[in-house]
Specification:
Layout (H helix, E strand, L loop, with lengths): L2 H23 L9 H11 L15 H5 L19 E3 L9 E6 L4 E6 L2 E7 L12 E4 L2 E7 L7 E7 L6 E4 L12 E3 L1 H10 L5 E5 L14
Parallel strand pairs: 2-10, 8-9
Antiparallel strand pairs: 1-4, 2-3, 3-4, 5-10, 6-7, 7-8
Length: 220
């Protein structure tokens, strides 16, 4: 075999080896023509990642107490006079009832879900038989109650606060009158209040505590 034939044979053998290597290096699928197509192809062939489960939000104290935050005060001009009362629950959403009594102002207010729906001047106890301060759940309701302590005195729309006779009830509310510690209110107002309360609803009796829009009715 002369040198040229040997050289040609060598080139053919080398070409064959290179061809085998090129075929072995070729991918089993065609290369994408662009980066955009590569992302599409990868998305179609790869296993989608599972999004981590979001942690549950921590309980919000503000949200929990939101029904007890004051959202509306009735627009009443000047101090409420004896015998005067106001009630407006139109378009007020349902919500828990909270009753406040300010001994200094001699005013009872009714809140439903944080909206003031009623307010009236009230009769209170005397120095000898004062209306007690504190938080009192309503424990009994009696539309036509008659006192078994004070000689059969009528106490319409009675709502009991204590075991020793302190109640909310309808009464004649006039200057110069007082109660034996109960909170007396005009009978028409007492009827409206009686209709919206439930056993367990709380009455907050304070002295001169100032509250306004955004304040928490059941706060300290």
């Amino acid at each position: 075999m002369n040198g040229r034939i040997f050289l040609a044979s060598g080139f053919l053998a080398l070409a064959a080896i290179v061809g085998v290597l090129v075929m072995a290096a070729s991918p089993s699928r065609p290369e994408p023509a662009s980066l955009a197509e590569a992302r599409v192809a990868a998305a179609k062939t790869s296993t989608p990642a599972v999004a981590p489960t979001a942690a549950a939000p921590a309980p919000s104290t503000a949200a929990k107490d939101e029904p007890f935050v004051i959202k509306r005060i009735l627009p009443i001009d000047g101090p409420i006079k004896y015998g005067e009362w106001h009630w407006n629950d139109k378009d007020v959403p349902k919500g828990p009832i909270v009753i406040t009594v300010d001994l200094d102002a001699r005013v009872l207010s009714v809140f439903q879900g944080g909206y003031e729906v009623g307010a009236t001047a009230v009769l209170l106890g005397t120095e000898d038989k004062p209306t007690p301060l504190g938080v009192f759940p309503i424990t009994q309701k009696d539309r036509d109650h008659v006192s078994n302590i004070y000689t059969g005195a009528p106490m319409p729309y009675m709502q009991r606060l204590t075991d020793d006779g302190i109640t909310l009830h309808g009464s004649k509310v006039e200057l110069g009158y007082a109660s034996h510690g109960c909170v007396g209110m005009p009978e028409a107002f007492a009827a409206k209040l009686f209709a919206v309360t439930h056993l367990g609803d709380k009455v907050y009796v304070t002295r001169g505590k100032q509250v306004g829009l955004g304040d928490n009715l059941i706060g300290g």
